[in-house]
Amino acid sequence: MKNRLTIFIVLLVSWANAQEQTHKFTLEQAIDFALENNYSAINASRDLTDAQKQKWETIATGLPQISGDVSYQNQLKQQVSLIPAEFGGGEPGTFIPVVFGQPQTANASATLRQQLFDGSYIVGIQAARTFIRYSQNNKEKTDLEIRKSVVEAYGNVLLAKESVDILKKNKTTLERNLLETQKLFENGLGEEESVEQLQITLSSIDNQLKNSLRLQDITLQMLNLVLGIDINAPTQLMEDLNDLAQQQIRPDLLETEFVMENNVDFKIVTNLFEQRELELKLQKSMALPTLNAFINYGSTAYSDSFNFFNNDVEWFESSVVGLDLHIPIFSSLGRSAKTQRAKIALDKAKTQLSETEQNLRLQYETAKSNYLFSIEEYNTAKENLGLAERIENKNQIKYEEGLATSFELRQAQTQLYNAQQEYLQSMVEVINKKTDLQVVLNNK
Fold it and tell me: Measured between alpha carbons, how far is 192 from 182 in angstroms, rounded to an integer?
C-alpha cells in the first residue's frame, strides 16, 4: 500500500511539472511550432485531406457500383381478377372472380452498374484535381498568414518587454531626481515648481509602466493563441528585439525579382479561373448522351405464410443485362441559358485575374517601399536616440549644477522618452515590413 501511494505521488508531481513546462522559442522555432499547432493550420490540413477524399469520391462514381435490394410484401387483401366463366364450364358472358398468386412475397436481388460514357464525369475528375490544387494553395496562404501573425505577435512581446525595462530605468532615474530636488527645496535651495515638474513626469512614466506591464501579459497571451497553446501557458522568448531587428535588415531582399506565379493570391485566383473554365465545360457536356451498362440477378419466393427461411421454400431466379442510353434532345433553351451564364462567369474570372495581377504588382512595390522606409526609419531612430540621450544627460548635469531649470530638464526627458519609444517601434516595423514583403514574394 505504501509503495502504491509513493508511485501515485511521483506521478502526480510529474504531471504537475509537465503542466508548468515552459515553452522556449526563437522566432523561427515559434513559426515552425505554429505551423504544426495553430488552429487554422490544423483545419487547413483537414481541408486538404477532405479535398483528396472528394477527388476519390468523384472518381468512384465512374467505377463499378454494386447495390443489393431485399423486399417483402404481405397482401392483406389480395386483388381479385375476373375471368370468363366459360373457361371453367360456366355460362358464356359471365365472369368468375379469381385470386392469382400467394399473399406473401420475398425478393432479393443485386445489381452491377458501370458507367460507359458521361461527359460530366471527365469534367468532374478535372474539377476535383483543380480543387485539390486550390486546397493546397489555401493551405499555403494559411501558413503565410500564420507566419506573419507569429512574427507580429513575437515582436509585440519583445516590444512590451523592452518598454517595461526602459520605463523601469526611467522611473528609477526620475525618483532619484525627485528625491534630490525635494531635499533641495526643503533646505531652501530649490523651487517648488521644480518638484512639481518632476512629479508630473514621474506620474506619467508610472502610468505608462503599469500599462506596459499589462500589455506584456496580453501580448504573450496573444502569441500563445497564435502558437496554438493555452494562452496562460508559460512561454519564454529566446531572442532580443535589437538583435532580431538587425537580422531582419536584408538589403538583398529588395533586389529579389517578383515572380507573379509564386504569389499565393495569384495562384488562388488562377484556381478560380480554372474552376470557371471547367464549369463552362460541364454545361457543354450536358448536351452529350450518357451510356451506362447494368446486370441484375435476383430471386423471388411466394408463400401463404412467412416461412421464407425454411429450406423447403422454392426460390425462383431471374437475371437481366442491359444498357441505359440517355440522349438530351430539347430543354426549351434551358441548357443554353446555363451555358451562357457559365461563359459570363468565366469572363468575370478572367477580368478578376487581370485585376489581381495589377494589384499584386502594386502590392509588391508598396511592400518594398515600406520595407526600405522602415530600415531608414530604424537608422534615423537609432541616431536620434543617441542624440536624445546625450541631450538629456547634459541637461541632467546642468540641472544638478543649477544651470538648467526643471522645465528644460523635463523637455529633455520627454524628448528622450519619445526617442526611446520611436526606436523600439522602428525595430518592430523593420521586422513586420520584411515579413510583408516576404509574403508578397512568397519568400520564406
Answer: 8
* Separation between Cα atoms, residue 227 and residue 221, nearest integer Å: 10
pLDDT for residue 223 is more than 90: yes
CB-based contact 74:168 (threshold 8 Å) = no
Burial of 178 (0-12, 13-18, 19+ CB in 10 A): middle
With beta carbons less than 8 A apart as the criterion, state whether 221 and 232 touch. yes
Residue 19: pLDDT above 60? no
Measured CA to CA, the distance from residue 416 to residue 195 in angstroms comes to 20
For residue 73, give the DSSP letter.
E
Note the CATH number of domain 65-76+95-117+290-327: 2.20.200
Return phi, psi of residue 95, to 5°.
-130, 150
- Cα–Cα distance between 197 and 246 in angstroms, integer? 37
In this predicted model, what pLDDT tens digit does every residue of 194-204 receive, in sequence order?
A: 788 888 888 98
23-62+118-288+332-441: CATH homologous superfamily? Outer membrane efflux proteins (OEP) (1.20.1600.10)
Select from 300, 312, 441, 276 the least CA-distant residue to 367.
441
Pick from 433, 444, 269: which is nearest to 366 by CA?
Answer: 433
% the chain with pLDDT above 70: 95
The answer to whether 269 and 353 have CB atoms below 8 angstroms apart is yes
Mean pLDDT rounded to a whole number for the chain: 88
Residue extents of the structural domains in the chain:
23-62+118-288+332-441, 65-76+95-117+290-327
Q: 268 with 288: CB under 8 angstroms?
A: no
Alpha-carbon Rg for the chain in angstroms: 40
Read off the pLDDT of residues 380-393 as tens digits, 9 standing for 90 and up.
999 999 999 999 89
Question: Helix 27-37 vs helix 119-186: angle between axes, to the nearest 10 degrees?
Answer: 140
- The answer to whether 399 touches 406, Cβ cutoff 8 Å, is yes
Q: What is the pLDDT of residues 302-313, one digit of tens each?
A: 888 888 888 888
Specify whether the CB–CB gap between 215 and 160 falls below 8 A: yes
In 192-210, which positions are buried (b, 16+ CB within 10 angstroms) versus exposed (e)?
A: eebbebbeebbeebeebbe
